[in-house]
Amino acid sequence: MALWKRDWTAEQINARMVGNMSGHLGIRITAITEDSLQAEMPVDDRTAQPFGLLHGGASVVLSESLGTLASIMTLPEGQLAVGIEVNANHMAGVPKGQTVTAICRPLHTGRRTQVWQTEIRRADGKLACVSRLTTAVVEGNAA
């Protein structure tokens, strides 16, 4: 059975992100594979902390954005997912000027809750952050 129940494209998702948190931070979906959602985000004035490194909160926004989108994509029309818990472990700094890449995969896709893990990597491939998001499945339609 296929993971995705909605046939959204990366272009459609990116167009939806314009004008909201993900769009403001420059998050861009780069691929939708059989079992993952992938994205990139620049480390620039919008996403860096005062000392010139990627802000941990920006990493969490990236993770929650991907996990929520991925969770919704596994659900039939009439259901949505909302984040109910997120955590992040930061392993390596990422300096301004780089672009991080992220890959989000499911750990659990249940009827009431889902758990998604996102790995965020620096340009050299080193793991910068690993984050886990739990979503609740609720009734509703994506606007």
Automatic annotation (TrEMBL):
Entry GO MF terms: 1,4-dihydroxy-2-naphthoyl-CoA thioesterase activity
UniProt GO cellular component terms: cytosol
Residue ranges of every copy of the Thioesterase domain listed in the record: 51-129
Domain of life: Bacteria
Alphabetical list of InterPro entries matching this protein: HotDog_dom_sf, PAAI_dom, Thioestr_dom
Keyword field: Hydrolase
Record family assignment: Belongs to the thioesterase PaaI family.
NCBIfam families per the UniProt record, alphabetical: unchar_dom_1 (TIGR00369)
PANTHER family reported in the protein's UniProt record: 1,4-DIHYDROXY-2-NAPHTHOYL-COA THIOESTERASE 1
Protein name: 1,4-dihydroxy-2-naphthoyl-CoA hydrolase
